[in-house]
Write the structure tokens for this entry.
Amino acid sequence: MPVIDSNKDSGNKKADMYLTDHELDDVQNLASAGFSIQDIAEFLYIADQTFRKMLKKSKENCESFKGDKFRKAEFLDQEVWFRFKQGQRMQHLMVSQGITKEAIEGNTQVLLFLARTKLGWNDKLLQTEEHSAVEELSKISISYEDVAGLPEGKE
């Protein structure tokens, strides 16, 4: 449950809300699992609009940090927007690792996907007069050990 700063004046201005360390961990973990902002807000028992405002204010805090550069990581770690973005980055990393693993294992469709998105290939480059690039890509033999630089048979 978000903590409300009770030291603030309770007039017309709403009190600032902040999340506990445990809740910040939850935000990061849920974001890494692909949960939406709305899903995370519901998990925290916060209105979607309130959580979005928290993220916006937190983003502004992160972007306007003017403190000691050696304390910036500690500061950012306490900001909900930063933790949300870290969770999203972790999800992107897991997806990228999965795609790369499939490519290394020889999945031709994944190899074509990577060739198009990462290497800039297009259908004109993938088709030659003699044979298709799919045939060429299917001939590629690469192992995890080749990429990781490990001796064969050891992980």
Residues 105-155 form one domain. The first strand starts at residue 3 and ends at 4. The chain has a mean pLDDT of 79.
